[in-house]
Design brief:
26 helices; binds (3S)-3,7-diaminoheptanoic acid; alpha+beta; binds zinc ion; 5-stranded mixed sheet; hydrolase
């Protein structure tokens, strides 16, 4: 596939002011009529109207009512070109499409008999010919016509103008969106659905209608999404002064969906996974995700829709910013629920979640063949760039701006951004310029965060001068080379620092040249390759606590011995760094165990680590949610990244040993926790309760891993008696991740209970795909995964099923996936090829599971390479998969 470059962006000579769409919906032959009011862009050199189209059958095209001369209409590989005269023209196009044959879930497709659309990034061109670029913002009117039986509900963006009956059992609805929008935000839904609705008032007193549309039988699972929507509205009004701009806001749940959700103007379409929840079917984590995805899509209404991206290279303009906004929202929701006393801990727990995702998903991406800046310079397939880098690292970049400018400065920058760019399609520079102008700051060097790929290394060394009570912190930075970027320039890195006294208290910080000490955490700005900061007036040698709150998306390289890590685990006043000290200590222990076990040497968990771990996990002064974070080991994906060469089998052996040791040595503590933590009364989604459930389930997990009889009995008992999914699933997960034969009965009982519930079955598939081997002679997980492919509830056509079974196996079970006989790699290639024929986006996601293959042991590389080559040689391979594999093999 050809490579598209950011530098090649040119505005189009013709844009569209209004579009009038008419859909005659039919499962196999939908006719789309489109009338475009085209306007010449006076600022651009004259040229034809460019229309993109993909898998369309063109029935008719007229310009101002007449068919154009043959020479004025040219067919291109990916669409059409039409010569237009003058300043304005009306172009009418009729196309026929086949929604039923559309298995890509991009464009117009069928799910459970209903019609749904997904247009971002380039799905609209699969519906009709159009200048399908985000910088073409048009006003839409849409008429939907469909069979009344099959599709009693007809929805599109904006406001409903009219609806009525038609002959032949058909009916219609006409919608109008008052705001100009790019085509990627178009949506329609025509299906058999029921609605939960509420009226709400906006801050300025306008009444708005809020709707959550779901399939019949799911109304009792729509309440949490509705509550989340209302909370999101209130938060955006309060935090950024941003109000809902439409009279009606709809969320629709659909079972077949490539991603989490989509922010179409006024008509958000969601994967059912991020809408439906009731205590019996959804875990605390599901509730949390629903709240944050609903918020994310709602926040896009301003950051993405009102102000959109000029081109797809600017994707992080809306995604990084909107992820940052949803992270802040979730932290505020948690803090509010926790109450004043526990608010800081609640925020830290959320921040730790964010950091975990970044380290487990984004750091490996940034170290592999797909590494790219948050604003990429080129791509072959834009759908491959909805990445952890664009989203999560993008959010970290926005967070650094927030840190550097302060809450008020950031808000002023946002206000200025909207005042300049509302209704426009803009670039990341426009955003940062507004921040700079509103704050009177020069952010030119900061822009390098948008341009450079790779995880920067932050080096730190402290020097204590007892004679004058000063401590000099020497900070260095260095970003390793990434594909296409050998040299990197120094970044602006905000480093939040604290200095801890020997008794564990924070020392007041006074930099050389300052007249008096200030706060106990302050943000240093590292701007060059190396910089020194001298703290004065100290009475004793401090222990530095760096990057508090994870103030920058970097890898901190600081030499700390075990005692110092244990000290910070126990004393650091910054909860994120307390957690991080525990992670670093665990990482060190695990990698040492893996090295020993990999070499066939005897290995044992150091006593000092067990002691430090135990004090933290059992510290009753700490909130259970935080202890659950502190007691959870670093993600396997992150650890593999820290291992050279990556040896999944040795890593797994180390983790098994560590789980079993911690389970056994702390058995009495875990059992005591299981007595103390159960939440009485009816289930409610509340962070305090969720924290207790999380810690209890983790305790069960350690006990089960150790084969502790009392623990296993408790897991069985809690599984049987559970009153909600969090308890039931937690107990089941503990059983599945153990050598206990009880896991099979429990899995069967779980299946029997939920056999008709697609979302719960996803959990059942995923648990089995993620299962470790707890006995060396047990059959490999691959056998189970293969058998589950034939399960009646499984389907390669449903992304949720693919992600649960195959995604979990390929991405979250490295030791089983990379079994030494190479069977996992052959299976991976078979699956990627099979998926690619149906749904390239889903296939590409699975394909990415092997992109970092060069980091593995030589034996694994030798087994992986032929499979990569086999996939690449497949006839008709999509650009999606071919970009991923091509880059992996480069
Ligand atoms: N903007 C969509 C993602 C679309 C992905 C297209 N392959 C969801 C979101 O980020 O909110
Ligand atoms: Zn988004």
């Amino acid at each position: 596939a050809p490579t598209i470059h950011r530098a090649d962006y040119r505005p189009l000579p013709w844009t569209v002011e209004r579009i009038d769409l008419h859909f005659n919906l039919d499962p196999t032959a939908t006719v789309v009529t489109s009338r475009l009011n085209c306007v010449r862009n006076p600022e651009v050199e004259a040229g034809p109207l460019r229309l993109w189209g993909d898998t369309l059958e063109c029935l008719l095209l007229t310009v101002d009512g007449a068919e154009p001369a043959a020479a004025a209409l040219r067919e291109l590989e990916d669409g059409l070109e039409v010569d237009l005269a003058g300043e304005r023209a009306v172009v009418e196009i009729h196309t026929r499409i086949d929604p039923q044959a559309n298995t890509t879930l991009s464009g117009l497709y069928l799910s459970n008999g209903g019609f749904f659309t997904q247009c971002e990034a380039e799905g609209f061109r699969r519906i009709t010919y159009f200048p399908d670029r985000p910088d073409v913002m048009a006003r839409y009117t849409v008429t939907l016509e469909a069979d009344r039986e099959r599709c009693p509900v007809l929805l599109s963006n904006g406001n409903l103008l009219e609806q009525g009956e038609l002959p032949g059992g058909r009916h219609y609805a006409r919608w109008e969106d008052p705001f100009p929008k790019p085509s990627y935000l178009f949506a329609l839904v025509a299906a058999r659905l029921v609605v939960l609705e509420r009226k709400a008032q906006t801050a300025s007193g306008r009444e708005v209608l809020l709707q959550v549309w779901v399939e019949e039988g799911n109304l009792d699972r729509a309440g949490h999404a509705m509550d989340s929507l209302i909370h999101s509205m209130r938060w955006d009004e309060r935090t950024f002064g941003l109000e809902l701009d439409l009279d009606r806001f709809m969320i629709v749940a659909v079972a077949d969906f490539n991603m989490g959700a989509m922010e179409n103007k006024g008509l958000n379409i969601f994967n059912t996974k991020y809408v439906l929840a009731k205590p019996d079917t959804a875990t605390d984590v599901d509730y949390e995700h629903i709240e944050s995805v609903v918020a994310h899509e709602y926040f896009h209404n301003w950051t993405g829709n009102r102000v959109t991206c000029r081109d797809w290279f600017q994707l992080t303009l809306k995604e990084g910013l909107t992820v940052f906004r949803d992270q802040q929202f979730s932290a505020d929701m948690l803090a509010e629920a926790a109450g004043e006393e526990d608010a800081a801990s609640a925020r830290a727990v959320k921040r730790i979640d964010d950091v975990r995702v970044l380290r487990a998903a984004q750091f490996p991406e940034d170290a592999g063949p797909m590494a790219h800046p948050i604003r990429p310079d080129s791509y072959q397939e834009i759908n491959n760039f909805y990445t952890a880098t664009v989203y999560e690292k993008g959010a970290e970049v926005i967070r650094m701006l927030h840190t550097l400018l302060g809450t008020e400065g950031f808000r002023n920058g946002m206000d200025l951004y909207f005042s300049y760019h509302d209704g426009k399609a803009v670039t990341c520079d426009d955003f940062v310029d507004a921040m700079a102008e509103a704050n009177g700051r020069d952010l030119d060097q900061f822009m390098r965060w948008y341009a450079q790929a790779g995880t920067p290394r932050l080096g730190a060394r402290g020097e204590w001068n007892a004679a004058d009570g000063s401590y000099t912190l020497r900070l260095t930075q260095h970003t390793p080379p990434t594909p296409g970027q050998a040299e990197k320039l120094p970044l602006v890195i905000p480093v939040a620092v604290g200095l801890i006294a020997p008794d564990g208290s924070d020392l007041p910080l006074q930099l050389e040249g300052e007249s008096q000490p200030g706060a106990s955490t302050r943000v240093l700005e590292l701007k060059t390759a190396e910089q020194r900061f001298r703290f004065v007036g100290l009475s004793a040698e401090p222990v530095p606590s760096l990057l508090r709150g994870f103030s920058a998306p970097v890898l901190l390289e600081l030499e700390e011995d075990d005692e110092r890590l244990a000290f910070r685990m126990a004393k650091d006043s910054d909860p994120c760094n307390r957690w991080d000290a525990a992670q670093r200590y665990a990482e060190r222990v695990i990698l040492a165990l893996a090295a020993d076990l990999g070499q066939g040497r005897a290995a044992a968990v150091p006593e000092a680590f067990i002691r430090a771990f135990r004090s933290l996990a059992t510290d009753e002064a700490l909130d259970p949610a935080f202890r659950a974070q502190a007691a959870a080991l670093p993600a396997e994906g992150y650890l593999l990244e820290r291992m050279s060469p990556a040896d999944p089998a040795a890593l797994r052996a180390a983790l098994r040993l560590l789980y079993a040791t911690l389970g056994e040595r702390l058995a009495a503590d875990w059992l005591a926790l299981c007595e103390r933590l159960p939440v009485a009364g009816e289930y409610r989604y509340h962070p305090a309760d969720a924290g207790r459930r999380a810690l209890l389930n983790l305790a069960l997990r350690y006990l089960a891993a150790a084969g502790n009889e009392a623990g296993l009995a408790l897991a069985r008992q809690r599984f049987g008696a559970a009153g909600n999914m969090t308890d039931r699933f937690g107990a089941l997960a503990a059983l599945v991740q153990s050598a206990s034969p009880a896991r099979e009965d429990a899995l069967a009982a779980f299946h029997a209970r939920y056999k008709d519930d697609a979302l719960v079955l996803d959990k059942w598939f995923s648990l089995q795909a993620g299962a470790w081997r707890w006995q060396d002679d047990a059959p490999g997980t691959l056998l189970r995964v293969k058998a589950l492919l034939d399960d009646a509830a499984f389907s390669l056509s449903n992304p949720n099923k693919v992600y649960s079974l195959l995604g979990t196996f390929f991405r979250a079970n490295p030791a089983e996936f990379h079994a030494a006989d190479g069977s996992g790699h052959v299976f991976w290639a078979d699956m990627v090829i099979a998926l690619d024929a149906r749904n390239p986006q889903v296939a590409a996601r699975m394909a990415r599971a092997l992109e970092n293959w060069r980091r593995y042991t030589p034996a694994l590389q030798a087994s992986i390479r032929p499979q990569l080559e086999r996939v690449l040689a497949t006839k008709g391979l999509s650009p999606d998969v071919s970009e991923v594999i091509g880059k992996a093999l480069q």
